[in-house]
Queue: 2 jobs
Job 1
Amino acid sequence: MSSIEAQLTTPAQREALFGNTGRAMGDAAEFIEFRHIRNCHAADPAYGAGVAKAPGIDLEKALASRPDDPMYGNPLAPLPA
């Protein structure tokens, strides 16, 4: 969270945001979850970490997954049907 967002929200509100965002990923393909976490992390590292933590996704694994993302042309990564 940016310092302004952190000042304007309580820890409980931030946890609710992380949990809501994490749950909203639902049963998306793993590469989609990882991509979303990377995008959240790019916007704000604390936000990305919170979104990853909520559904129990390993943040470091998500951050390291970019080369495996089919969006970036990895022919070995299966696209969802």
Note: The mean pLDDT is 85.
Job 2
Amino acid sequence: MAVKIRMRRIGRTNRPYFRIVATDIRSPRDGRFLEILGQYDPLKQGVNYTLKTERVKYWLGVGAQVSDAVAVFLKKEGLIGGKRVKKAAAPKKKPEGAKKKKKA
């Protein structure tokens, strides 16, 4: 079973609130989860998240993937390291109808 650490919305309309959970990749965003690992309140000022660091380390150790949003919190806590690596841009292809320049 592939596991992902991601956020699950539990807040009401216009009052977002999220739980950070370990879940099966096939489960929907607000569906079934394996374990609650923390919480995030985007409307709170200052430190607006909490994490169970020991449990997060466990799930990372067994191969859980991390969503981009949760990765930000884990980097702040020092649980995952490194800078964000930009994906290499694909080389631009010339249009098929473009003419080649001839040297004189």
Note: The CA atoms of residues 9 and 18 lie 4 Å apart.
